[in-house]
Amino acid sequence: QVQLVESGGGLVQPGESLRLSCTASGSFLIVNDMAWYRQAPGQQRELVANISIDGITNYLNPVKGRFTVSRDHAKSTVYLQMNSLKPEDTAVYYCYAHILRLLEAPKDYWGQGTQVTVSS
Q1: Exposure letters 45-80 (e unless 16+ CB within 10 A, then b)
Q2: b/e sequence 110-119, b meaning 16+ C-beta within 10 Å
Q3: Model pLDDT, residue 9
Q4: Angle at 91 between CA 18 and CA 82, to 5 degrees
Q5: What DSSP line would sit under the chain, residue for residue?
Q6: Torsion angle of alpha carbons 5, 105, 50, 8, nearest 10°?
Q7: CA–CA separation, 19 vs 89, rounded Å?
Q8: How many beta carbons lie within 10 A of that of residue 40, not counting itself?
Q9: CA pair distance 118, 106, nearest whole angstrom
Q10: pLDDT of residue 50
Q11: Which residues make beta-bridge pairs with 99?
Q12: How do residues 50-88 score in pLDDT, each as one tens digit?
């Protein structure tokens, strides 16, 4: 079994910061791409940022310059540092990882989601 466990969401005021963390646990060989998605009420889930196994990153245009995705291979953890938060960043944030397990084809895994609310 593989689980992605997220932490770090909460309620903040506009302009403040939050750091999300997501750790993969269980039995696996390689964690390939990792990413953060978000879904606001009534909207589709969208990719916020991703990071490859080689550390190459991509960002959703509205978060460029404010959010930073990083990972710690030794801890199988991905982070999302969110600065200068805006009310439009309010959403449930989901962690994603593409993981290879022994004797299986690589698969997609998702975290349970963590709520981020930006409001004054």
Answers
A1: eeebbbbeeeeeeebeeebeeebbbebeeeebbbbb
A2: ebebbebebe
A3: 95
A4: 25
A5: -EEEEEE--EEE-TT--EEEEEEEEES-SEEEEEEEEEE-TTS--EEEEEE-TT--EEE-GGGTTTEEEEEEGGGTEEEEEE-S--GGG-EEEEEEEEEE-TTS--EEEE---EEEEE--
A6: 0
A7: 13
A8: 14
A9: 35
A10: 98
A11: 31, 107
A12: 999 999 999 999 999 999 999 999 999 999 999 999 999
Comparing C-alpha atoms, which of 96, 93, 109 is closest to residue 8? 93
- Find where tokens 């750091």 sit: 19
Are 96 and 110 contacting, i.e. CB atoms less than 8 angstroms apart?
Answer: yes
**Angstrom distance (rounded) from CA 18 to CA 12:** 8
Most distant pair of Cα atoms in the chain: their distance: 50
Q: Fill in the amino acid letter for 44.
A: Q
CA dihedral 79, 82, 87, 93 (to 10 degrees): -10
